[in-house]
Design goal:
2 domains, 8-stranded mixed sheet, Rossmann fold, about 450 residues, UDP-Glc/GDP-Man_DH_C, GDP-mannose 6-dehydrogenase
């Protein structure tokens, strides 16, 4: 394919060289004449493993050249890959200035060349990191204005985030962890996948905003992992423990630790272990004068998420509430530090007329610490518990669903009926999204 790559920094330079190495005809575009001259001389404008030899090879073969002329590059390519920078503004917000400028230039070049009218639809692929909504709400309108046509019809549009690590980016390009294509239409996605034909790794074709968000999920989690490891290591050092030995054992657990476990957005966590152990770990760090801002904010973050559910109920304006689920984990009657108990307590304290159903919770069967906990936190539980799903549904104007109990899920009405506040992502959540009485937490 004929490809123009806008921006010859790390991402653009590596993408251009690797695509040329795969047999595509690539034109690199940059406003910096020094970068353009370096590429045309067969030299890399960035320091990166293997990039120097690769650029020398593809320039020598004629597969890669560089220019400052946007119009020439666009009109001599079928695909434009936008890899310009999106730095932070002074207040931390995303700077989209370079994205907007390049989108205008590509659109103007296409309009001037009349390519979209000739039946050879050009596809603009955004590879730069940008927040969800940037492409559809900002860049697509700019492109349509300058092209004088409709995105997805007259010009293709896709978002294709990169997952390249500096230092190993050439290796990562040819052996990617995944390929993500946010496609405005199927034809646009087909063009992007044709660029990477033959590369390994799983392919995900998703809506444009999903593709934009995936890059942020990756980087936020990477930062969180590094911060967690460093904070925990500092606590271990203060307590005289070999942190690397601890983490070797931690990393060996592929069932819970290094796995998909606990990584699905949902409701707050609770139970007899997580809150207690986090509190004691943070306290131990404080006693040892070790600052652990990540660990110390896990429980406040959890509490904030619980508060979001309360606020969703408040926004409905309803006063009769029903809660399905009470134990901290489905299939148990353990109420200790259950976020659903906390939720019930907050709603009851705000004067809501509350009914609760949990098939596993019976006041007469609660014993020991479990009974003591509920008598302290929710002493009015006996008058709040319902005997059936139907009793709660008959009572409630708004239902909070904190369980996937089949008896509850099958009884929940569609359309007319109480407002549904979904805390667990119900099996039919996708269908319910279109209903006016459905509210999902964290999705």
């Amino acid at each position: 394919m004929r490809v123009s790559v806008f921006g010859l920094g790390y991402v653009g330079c590596v993408s251009a060289a690797c695509l040329a190495g795969m047999g595509h005809e690539v034109i690199g575009v940059d406003v910096n004449q020094v970068k353009v001259d370096l590429v045309n001389d067969g030299k890399a404008p960035v320091v990166e493993e293997r990039i120097g030899e690769l650029i020398a090879d593809v320039v020598r073969s004629g597969a890669l050249r560089a220019t400052r002329d946007v119009r020439e590059a666009v009109l001599n390519s079928d695909v434009s890959l936008v890899c310009v920078g999106t730095p932070s503004e002074a207040n931390g917000s995303l700077c989209t200035t370079y994205l907007e400028r390049v989108t205008e230039q590509i659109g103007a070049a296409l309009a001037e060349g009349g390519e979209q009218k000739a039946g050879t639809r050009h596809t603009v692929v955004f590879r730069s990191t940008m927040l969800p909504g940037t492409c559809l709400n900002l860049l697509v309108p700019i492109l349509e204005k300058y092209v004088g046509g409709t995105a997805g019809v007259d010009v293709g549009v896709a978002v294709n985030p990169e997952f390249l690590r500096e230092g190993t980016s050439v290796r990562d390009f040819f052996d990617p962890p995944k390929t993500v294509v946010g496609e405005l239409d199927a034809a646009s996605g087909d063009v992007v996948l044709a660029l990477y034909e033959g590369l390994p790794g799983e392919v995900f074709r998703v809506p444009v905003p999903t593709a934009e968000a995936i890059k942020y999920a990756d980087n936020a989690f990477h930062g969180l992992k590094i911060g967690f490891a460093n904070e925990f290591g500092a606590v271990c050092q203060a307590l005289g423990v070999d942190s690397h030995q601890v983490m070797d054992v931690f990393l060996a657990d592929r069932k819970l630790n290094i796995s998909p476990a606990y990584l699905r957005p949902g409701f707050a966590f609770g139970g007899s272990c997580l809150p207690k152990d986090l509190r004691s770990l943070v306290h131990a760090a404080q006693r040892a004068d070790v600052s652990v801002p990540i660990l110390s904010h896990v429980l406040p973050s959890n509490s904030d998420h619980l508060q979001r559910a309360v606020e969703m109920v408040e926004r409905t304006g309803k006063r009769r509430a029903g809660l399905f689920g009470l134990s901290f984990k489905p299939g148990t009657d353990d109420l200790r530090e259950s976020p659903l108990v906390e939720l019930a307590e907050r709603l009851f304290g705000k004067g809501y007329d509350l009914k609760i159903y949990d098939a596993n919770v019976s006041l007469s069967r609660l014993l020991g610490a479990n009974r003591e906990y509920i008598e302290t936190r929710l002493p009015h539980l006996a008058q709040l518990l319902a005997d059936s799903v139907e009793e709660v549904l008959d009572h409630a104007e708004v239902c909070l669903v904190g369980t996937r109990d089949p008896a509850v899920v099958s009884a929940l009405p569609h359309g007319d009926g109480p407002v549904i506040v979904d805390l667990v992502r119900l099996p039919d959540a996708d269908a319910r999204r279109a209903e006016p009485g459905y509210m999902g937490l964290a999705w």
